[in-house]
Amino acid sequence: MISTAALLEQLEGYVELIDSVIENKNWDELNETLIRRQDILEELCRLPLSSHERGAVVKIMTLMQMTDRQFIALVQAQKEVLQKQAALLAHDRKAIQAYQIE
Predict the structure, then answer these.
(1) CB within 8 A of 22, min separation 6: which ones?
(2) Percent over 90 (pLDDT), the chain
(3) Helix axes 27-46 and 4-23, enclosed angle (nearest 10)
(4) Which is deepest, 7, 63, 78, 79, by most CB within 10 Å?
């Protein structure tokens, strides 16, 4: 059985990993990373925790919530950029089709 400290340490590493994945716009890897992080969280929640460990868990979860808000904002910004690019591409395709028909 893995220790609470080891699980907390793994969770802390996910902040940088998620940031890197978002920066690289690797959306499939982001999904896989979030699933792995969720697995660790679930494993952590199944462990019996001392009051000190509970405090550490609350601290890391609060940090995760704050960073997740930032990550969501970054992903939303990227989504908006991609939507604009897709709209421009669709417009260009229509223009090309109209030109080819004439």
Answers:
(1) 30, 71, 74, 75, 78
(2) 82
(3) 170
(4) 7
